Amino acid sequence: MNQSIGKMDRKYKKLIKCLALDAIGMASAAMPIIDVVWAPLAASISYKMFGEKRGKFTSIITFIEEILPVTDVIPSFTIFWFLFDFLEIGKEAKTVNQPIDTDFVEIK
Asked: What is the largest CA-CA distance in the chain?
């Protein structure tokens, strides 16, 4: 039971980080020159935050979203959190290590 509570705490702490990062991105809309620095930094943070497999996708989207004008209002970190952490889209299924039934395996 305590493990599930710890997992929930980590999940929602990550949400708070995502909201803060999105707020920084939205604040950069006031001074577009900041986007030149913020876009690659946000992409790097996104890659590290969402892992190697999903991070490749999120970092590219985050970079494009932050570097283009007017798109700073899109909360990309929060959207990725919702998709990958809340809905668990793309999460690899956990499998139990079960022995293979060799009676049905045909070796040629």
From this structure: 68
Model confidence pLDDT, tens digit, residues 12-42: 999 999 999 999 999 988 888 899 999 999 9
Residue 101 reports pLDDT greater than 70: no
Rounded-to-integer distance, Cα 16 and Cα 7, Å: 15
Cβ atoms of 28 and 66 closer than 8 Å: yes
At position 2, the amino acid (one-letter code) is N
103: left (phi over 0), alpha (psi -120 to 50) or beta: alpha
Q: How far is CA 84 from CA 6, 15, 33, 59, in A?
A: 18, 11, 31, 14
Q: What is the pTM of this model?
A: 0.77
